[in-house]
Fold each of these.
Amino acid sequence: MHKADTILINGVICTVDPAFRFVQALVVDGGRILYCGNTSQALKYRGEETKIIDLEGKLVLPGTFDAHIHAAFAGLSLSPDFVKVEPEDACNLKEFNERIREKAEKLPEDTWIIGWGFKTWQVEEWAKEDRLPTWKDIEEGSMGHPVILNDGGLHTMLVSRRALELAGITKDTVFKKEEGTMFRFEDGSPTGLFTDFGTQAAVGRAAHHLVGDEMDECLMRMQRQMNSYGITSHNDIVGIGGNDMCFGTYGEEAIHGYERLRRSGKLTARVFVNILAGKGGVQSYDTIFEGIGEMRLPEFGDKEWVRADAVKVFGDDGWERDLPPGQNGYCMFPGETPEEQGKELAKTLKELHHRGWQTATHLTGGRGIDVAVDALSEAEEEEPGRDLRHFILHASGSSRENIKKCVRHGIGCGAQAVGGYEFGGETDYKVLLDGGMLVAEGSDAPALPMNWMKGLHFLVSRKAKDGKVYHPEMAIDIREAVRMYTIYPAWQNHAEDFCGSLEVGKCADLQVLERNIFEIPADEIEHVRVLMTMCGGKIVYRDCIDL
């Protein structure tokens, strides 16, 4: 009998196979699962150099697959020079500037500073005066440095006066509607506040860019952090359209960095890239296909570790169906009317389908979802059987008719239950699941916590961080919730043959938990820690325990 590298015994191993079986032991060899069953049979694979891990009754799950995370940028946010301004850290401008100054005074002159966490409601002066922030509000803290501060969702950016100067942005600068908005003082000069990605890229072109070892260190920093939460696979949203956003952590260099790390054997989680293709961050038919034509992807040596088969499309920001004008969000695609914008979005999605690209479309409004689902459904009917597995990210305004079309044409949903944990509310994925739609969970970190236990906690208990229970009738069975973090994201990424569950022949990607989430009260799940994480048969994270 073949002698294995590692044997895990005496555990409660949840396979998440089609029968959702529980077994005692796993045998791992060459990074793959060789046997899955009972302890006595597993020990027959023991050799002189086999490592035996006695689980002592602890629960084992497949490694988490985070289906929506801004991983490279999150790695940047973990760097020591990154500014984080949390609500509890700064409730007025004095404290806000102190957080920035803590970094600025330690850095050489004209060193770019980047951070996040800025929200208009965090600072009492902005709320009291009923106004938006400007560069003048951070001038004291910036100490003359070029500073970029993003909001948590990366859709709004505040920059310092020096950043405006270095980027060459003045009152004569004009942006197209689809590039975003530059806010102005009465004299027409920029206030330093911008929305959307075209304007952010215009500032970011002048900023520092991570390349080579600096990018690789950023990615490794984030991989280690993800491993500590049991994450062994993840999406990332990076590509040519993000080259000038967030020090390049949304750009092509991150893709090359992932492949460099794979070649050197340093990756500790699998990477599935959603390509941000729109040139200059702009979302349109022309910019997306121009970006696809110009991008230079590395030659992926092992697509079980790094691949880039999907295109990320930012479709809307709360583009709703029936709200009054000015209160119904907007489509991010060009056009003089909503109808023209919808046609541009639909044309883009259909052409991506025609060219064989899977699409991951950011949509948070009902009208945008209607447009995208109709377009993708038509594309599937015109060219059926391509198995591209398009998906809608967020999908918070889906209708029952949308769900029926998605099920019919294999369109999935990328969800973030951790948002429900953080903010409460509806976040009703049960309707999507009951309708037959596949829902793959992700964190959307760093905008939201990457600790998947918080999202799982909300799905099964409907209890949010504030202690309140929101719509308990929407609670999801824990087995289904676990699938949403494991096998469903694997399927969404065409990876169900090698990850997402613990079955013979699949990669040995798993996590050991300190408590059995299937036995404890649902509202205690958020506190469960990961004790050990294994990816490709190698232990990539271990808590201070004897395992």
Amino acid sequence: MRLLEVARRTSFNEEVLPTAANSSCDLQTLRWTPAEGSGFMLLKPVVSLKYYTMPDNIKHFRDSHTDLHRPLNWNNYSQRFHLLLHLEEFQQKTDIEKYNQDDVPLFRHKSNTNLFVLQITGVSKGSLLKLSGNQVLVTPLNQKGVENEIHQGWIYHVDAEQVYLQFSEKFISDFKDGMRFRVLFAINRVPLRIQHRAVARVYKHGLREVLFPTGKLSSHHSHIHSLLGIESNPEQHMAIQHILAGSAKPSPYLVFGPPGTGKTATLVEAINQIVKTQASCNILACAPSNSATDHLCEKILEGNLGNWLEVYRLYSLSTPVKNIPQNSKLCCNLIYGTNTFMIPPKEELMNYKILVTTLQTAGRLVTGGIPPGHFTYIFVDEAGQAAETECIIPIAGLLKPHRCQVVLAGDPKQLGPIITSKIAQEHGMGVSLLERLMGDIDLYKSHETYGFNNRFVTKLLRNYRSHPAILKIPNELFYKGELQPFARKEKCNSFCKWERLPKKGFPLIFHGVAGSDERDANSPSVYNMAEVEVLKEYLKVLVDHICKKTGTKIQPREIGIIAPYRKQVEKIQKALEMDKDLKKENLENILVGSVEQFQGKEFNVILMSTVRSTPKLTAHKQRFTIGFLDNEKRFNVALTRAQALLIVVGDPRVLKTDQIWNKFIHYCYTEGGYRGITVFDAEEEDAPTNAHLSHRCGE
């Protein structure tokens, strides 16, 4: 027997990607906004924000972190998280300093003379995105290379190849074409300082029963009201009843929401009911990111609360105006007719029934001296994505434990916070407050017989998103098979008769591809061109099918494409632009991105490229790793975004080495949803080479 490998190459494989020198970013469509710290600050600072300077010896401490092995408790809480925040800052600082440049030119932007363009060479395309939101220090160099004064600026925008900088009027007036500079990047320390302050204030505000709840101080006789109109979902109904009654207070109430079960809808209905029934309520609603906060605010505004003037969306001063949803512009701190924001005075902010902001911007409310006890409810949506130090920003400063009910909604089985420092991640920063409470505190653990204690936590069980076939494996692996499919039939069955399905009625395909891992010389990120080609062919058929069926172009949230590696994302995006058939279509509404970009979102159709493959077909005995793919939280998020059709493209020879992927592939095979290459069983070299997926792959 002789094994042959055939690589089919198309014109796209040979395409030369543009270099940084000939790329450009049209910033005319981006509206200019002042840097952080400008704008109108009418909210006077009352509570100081210290510097919390990183210790000089933190670099050496990284190698001898014995203190971090002791369990987290109330007594070591502040000390532990101060240390982890310093470790995180050290890593962020180390990472950003790699982009420092010596003796380089800056160019004035052609269409926006307030901006300056810096081209950085010698780094992988796309890695510059790490610079977003940070500071820059530039020193003009005279012809002899002698340094002059240092100018501080802000990174206004970053694309895949260039950095756009913004400076003071003095720098703009002094700048002359041809000047050369030393450029140093510095992290924006304000978010870390705000987290340090929250960690430092937990003892002052008496948050022991909030952060390490025992339930002993919670009301055991809370009056649970019957609610009309929401009885159709018993779990949501129960959660809202207990939130209204404040049955957990001072302990947080947790809404454990697996994918598609309506976490945000539950919070919004709870807010709606609170406003209807509690005249003296004041509600703070938060989320970790602007996009999640905007989504929450949009749903609150849709909730028919009677008077949208009671809702106020507070943005940070540095938020790009172009990102603000239209409906939020009527009730936010954007100054009408300008591109600037203002932070209103304390008295005005305290007049709103519902204040909606990000966890970080909630730090402004602490600084402004809004008193603990003003808010009767603090809601945190997508709490599983926030580091604990971020989640407690509004809690350690705005919470009076026996007056205010904290509500955390999220899913510890999905992706958690993104932490730069591996040491900090491993010792607590990588675990959200929601996940820590559910993992370590008895109140929030599921009893073998009785399940969860509904006075403190509710697990939502009805999935309103996915076809039952798509939901089955994640449900069994992560949710004890308790999730119930409740998606609308006309939506989740819309691809059950699609002509390309291997088995009608089973809208799930695993397509086996014998590709190979590739890396560019200047990038550690992996890509797989064979999988790009297969995805492209599926996409053509899907676009043709959808456009013929609807008579319109592809709508937002219709198709999403997930790839676990940044380089594969770039290759797929380039394929959409270069393919002669696809570039005729209007595909700007198709999102191509990493798993992280898809968390919290849903699409009618999801295509996924798993990328990892064996280097050569003949090297089947070589040891290999599946990298990011062995993260079960990534697997869970990726496979639960689809409503009606899920197509996964990957190399089964590699994926079957992982227990979770093995189960998924075997499921697709036994249900008739497997396509692509036959699988050679590496453990039995005498097995027929044309055999389909062996049963061992499912063991």
Amino acid sequence: MPAKNETDRELDVEQQYLTTLYAEADTLREQASARLAAADPATAPFWRAELRRLEAAEDGLCFGRLDMQDGSRVHVGRLGLFRDDEPLLLDWRAPAARPFYTATMADDHGVRRRRRITTRGRVVLALDDELLAAEAGSEVLVGEVLVGEGALMAALTAQRTGRMRDVVTTLQAEQDRIVRDDHPGVLVVQGGPGTGKTAVALHRLAYLLYTRPHLRGRGVLVVGPSRVFLTYIGQVLPGLGEHAVVTSTVAELHPGVRIGRTDPPGTAVAKGRAEMAGRIAAAVRARVRPPAEPVEIAFEQETLALDPDTCREAVEAVAGTGLPHNPARLVFQQRIVASLAQDLLDRMENVVFTDTGEALDGGSADGRLSAADLHALAAAGVVVDPGQDDGPRRLLDETDAARLRAALLADAGVGAALDGLWPPLTAPEVVADLLGIPGDVWSPADVPLLDEAAAVLGDLGGVTFGHVVVDEAQELSEMAWRMLLRRCPTRSMTVVGDLAQTGDPAGATSWAGLRPPVSSLPGATDSSGTDDGLRSHVDGRWRLAQLTVNYRTPAEIMAATVPLFAAHHPGLRPPRSVRRAGEHPWRRRTTLAELPGVLAGIAAAHRDGRLAIITPAAHHARITAAVPVRTPPELTDPVVVLTPGQAKGLEFDAVIVVDPAGILAGPLGHNDLYVAMTRATRHLGIVHPGPPPAVLADVRERSH
């Protein structure tokens, strides 16, 4: 062990350097604040963002150091700091900082020593050194050394806080490769429980915003499975210095929809299929009805006749523009009104009235002014030299024609007649009519249909994003994917999920199903080969990568899931756990009547970190009445009660899974049970009314 004075000396060295870094950051913060106060509206957003970036780095400003074999030394942190063009601190996203995450004994990247620096506020607490150069093996390490992945293990075994923490200080090489992947299209990341796929996706977003700053101007979107989940991850990006990010659930992407019911599984599956897009488009097209017979339209003192051929030609011409239904309707109206106005103008030209308002002449067949025309015009005060009558002439000019067209468009009778041919439509009207349901309360599966209808009608807002992160992406139906891709026309996306955790019946069974909508982008290519949804590859605009190491879930808990996983996912491999907790999962048998009391007792006795009770929805009300928890759940509380769907993507120190047989009874209950069992970082218990399901029979039973 190194001498204490040597440890203290190294701590003092790092403390002095950290103090220097904070002094530099404070100076920059003061400058940014002053410039923001004096900024004009054009530059204020820049200085406001700069101030937020500097404030976000207050905690954990510097967390690492690289001693290179050439004698140079660099510190790594949350942002870059420079003095006279010399780097005081490397941003973790900079290329020169990458060896901090990727250097190993086998491939040291020129690194002699990697030091991890643990701080609290502005104080250095501990150091963790690794010697990577082969010839350095005999040197004495100074500082508080945790051999190998000690710093990572310390982070993983720490108690949960109810909020996700960034992993910028402990990213592993497998994760770092994905974070820095520069693929311009859709990067799909398959990762089992505890592999850090959510953290990887968010860190990749921070990396892309660093390397592609133009994305900030276009906006970035993070889509999660629930608002509870989005709150859980809400501190990660600000902690990495990124604030300008929109977060949303899939349902929230189409605002104004009142969710009030849940579809049966079969209905949800049918609504989620891509073929629904064709049905919606066909339903909209069917509402355009060119007449088979002439249509008479009353306008002022006239009766106008709309010819079927004219109407049909207008429909075909407007359809050829590719405009959505409602904007196309306006073009159709303008074409029809122009035709009606021209007919009316021609009629008016061919009848000349006296000053008493009586028709004097039917007009000349060749359009020339007859003697009667000239006489009538003279009576009206218009004198025309007969010698200048060298051909057809119009009495009404384009100004008169424009006024007539405007009058026709404003006429209620004309508008009603045109709406009968090409009606204005709303998305709720189209979807409700197609599904045969009332258009006031919707299910989650209806939201992508409403969005599709709005896109067909041209009523969808123009909000698009430069990059989109999709978490728990296995839950999305084909129609939900269409909804997302409309908001990211460049197809720049980071998509993470686990096929073994799909809980939505309309969700994914293979990542290959994502290929068609992505490859539909102009210029994208598609592969003619087959894919099992797991091989890493590049296919047109999308690439599939994998995370294989489970950092969260102890090996003892993952072992308890083996029968369940093997029975339902023989083609998948579960992630490999890197640690053991020293405690095996347990199960306890009870009755339905005793269930709330048993859980209340467990919750009252729990003292070791945060506890999640994960239950089927059928028991939720009874359990929350017996266990003092908040609804909706607040993840920073010591105890929460969740359904498997609500628990997706979350982690807790301890988990109690309630009624596994009830969970298994769901449409994809085996995946829901797998989710529930893999949320714990240390302790897992199972409370089951009646006998346990066969896949859990080997879990140790205890009586209390």
Amino acid sequence: MNKSLALLTASLLLAGCQTLAPTPDGSPPVESAESATSKAQPKQYASFSEETLYALLTAELAGQRDRFDIALGNYVQQANATRDPGVAERAFRIAEYLGAEQAALDSALIWSQSAPDSVDAQRAAAVQLARAGRYDEAMLHMEKVLQGQGDTHFDFLALSAAETDPDTRAGLMQSFERLLQKHPNNGQLLFGKALLLHQDGRPEEALELLEGNKASEQQVPPLLLRARLLQGLGRGEEALPLLESGLEKHPDEKRLRLAYARQLVEAKRLDDAKREFSGLVQQFPDDDDLRYSLALVCMEAESWDEAAAYLEELVARGAHADAAHFNLGRLYERRGDSESALIEYALVGPGDDYLPAQVRQTEILFASERAAEASNRLARSRESQPDYAIQLYLIEAEALANRQQHEQAWQVMAQALEQFPGDTNLLYTRAMLAEKRGDLAGLERDLRDIIEREPDNATALNALGYTLADRTTRYDEAKALIERAHRLNPEDAATLDSLGWVNYRLGNLEEAERYLRAALAKFPDHEVAAHLGEVLWAQGRQREARKVWSGALKTQPDSPILRSTIQRLTGSEKL
């Protein structure tokens, strides 16, 4: 191309703010010419050199040919060279669309520096700095937006800090408080601070801040946060009237109506929830997430025909298909139609619902005394979905063990470990089966194998320690193993139970009681109750022991360990 003609064309292109060519999927690569280069007024560019004009023309032509890498590279280069706000903004818009984070940050900073009075430029710089984790600098730019009477994104700054360390969040909180001293009634600042308080685990303070802010009664995001805070504080009944009031002011606000519908589900007002979700689906017929939620609400309400209709519609639309098949399986199970349930579970493909579907298939077949068919199905599934093979072996072994078919489960584990030698999940399961078979040497061998491979495996350490305490007299060795597990996972109820039991074996009754009470508070399990009752009995506190056992029997009346403990200590199965 003749260079003088190219320069003339460049001038025309820049003056008219031409667009880049559309992407292959038909969507624009950046924005329309008006929005990509200017949200309002056409840009007035500075006088450029021939080299700059040529580079910008090349960028525009490259964009028309889907070479957005060249377009971005040229615009970023010229933004740095010219410091022109129009070129910098254009570079930013392209980089933002392409997801080029560093280029977006660099060009946004040039734009904000060269256009200090532009609210859009300062906001773009603030958002990009926040994405880069440079929160203090982001706040400085956002303050300029606030001073320019622009819409700020303090909520974005607060949300972007959610995954950062406490010190970073504390620093950002100080910045918010500094700005609030200057702008005490700014609703966006107050909302941002409330978000930070919520992230810091201070929901009461966040709620108090929002309740004292009139803007939170009118604007949707603060309303939604208030409802969420109330729900988290166990005050969900207060969230419903709040959301109802919000809907009177914003009847077409989707997020608010969705939050209201979900709150109705929490309140067990299922008919009202169905009505709300149904209205949302009618209002947004292409939103299959809403359709799926409506199907689940119908299932919760046991409106089986309605639920089936929505789930089948999802399958036909190809949306949430696996989840729809899984829930259709559940639905047919509830209706007592096992064969239809098996068909639906078999249609669930790889994903979150695949293994639960395999579990349900297996349970149905075992309950119908079709164990061979269950094993055949699982074997075929292992062949067709090798990534799930280990979990499928575990499903089969657990189904067999739950029906006291320990030898068959042992054979399944042998086959699994031949295919996946050294897998810790398989080794652990075989260790538990060895205990059922009375093979303590086999149990110890597998658990020590796991511990050698994974020295910080708290589950294996605790399992071995508890077994040694319960089934041998190697109490000191058992205690050392359990204490290692406790250091790794101090809040685990099973480990606390083991610590209580080994201390009981060692005669440390007060320590045993302390650990067992802590375990029972965290996890009211029948085995823990049996242990605590035995410790209390050994202390001569038979009435307290009977009370603990009686409470556990109400939830686990057929517990073998409770019954055997009571029989052994009292001489009778009855309390």
